[in-house]
Amino acid sequence: MMKKFILGVCAVTLVGSQGFAATDHAKLVDRLNAASRVLQEIEATPDKSIPTGILSDATCVAVVPGYKKAAFVVGGSYGQGVVTCKTSHGWSAPAFIQMAGGSFGFQIGGQATDLVLIAVNQRGMQDLLKSKFKIGGDAAASAGPVGRNAGAATNLTLKSELLTYSRSQGLFAGIDLNGTVVNQNTEDTRTFYSHDVPFSTILEGNIVTPPSARPFVGTVARYFRKAQ
Predict the structure, then answer these.
(1) Given CA atoms 127, 131, 135, 136 in this order, what sign does their dihedral have?
(2) Is 97 helix (H, G, I), strand (E, B) or coil?
(3) Structural domain boundaries in the chain
(4) Which residues contact 77 (CB under 8 A, 6 or more apart)?
(5) Which one-letter DSSP state was computed for residue 225?
(6) What would the pLDDT profile of 46-100 be if each residue is shown by its tens digit?
(7) From CA 29, how far away is CA 36, in angstroms rounded?
(8) What element of type H or E holds 30?
(9) Sign of dihedral through CA atoms 198, 202, 203, 206?
(10) Whole-angstrom distance, CA of residue 170 vs CA of residue 208
(11) Model confidence, pTM
């Protein structure tokens, strides 16, 4: 039993070290482009996408392309993503985030999926990302509805701060991410902007969106405008 426990701890440690290693600028641009593609592909199937009522209430949108789960006795998960928030003059330049969670049980295997997190009240991710937060703990969260169910969308936005979605093998649905920790990725943000920039400065719209980030921010803005 002790041997299995040690193997599990090693698996989670490996996930963490691989997931949160420093990234060069080109890979960060690739991540932004991947996030843009995720939203474009969701947008292309309106009957199975995010309800317009949620899009119109969105204050921040985070996308984590290829969120990974790996397990050997102890399960672990990690992902790297980007977030932009609505401001008085449009959507902000992106900041970089990282997510980590774990599940215990006797399991072997791995999978990857795309995640989308939508903040739907004024607190938004600007406040949540002042420090790391736990989904379902520090921020009330619900698996988001899909399609044209406006009634369900309204009810969820009244009781949740975050709505969470996953997309895997072409299937898009709400997902329960309670217990997952979301944190600032200060190293990747520093690499992308070539210097330290506070998350509040970025997400409150006080920094110009770099050209390499405009496709992602533009995709979010276009998707949002369609909801109006």
Answers:
(1) negative
(2) strand
(3) 22-64+80-97+112-226
(4) 15, 67, 68, 69, 70, 99, 100, 101, 102, 103, 180
(5) H
(6) 778 888 888 888 999 999 998 766 554 445 567 899 999 999 889 999 999 998 8
(7) 11
(8) helix 25-43
(9) positive
(10) 34
(11) 0.81
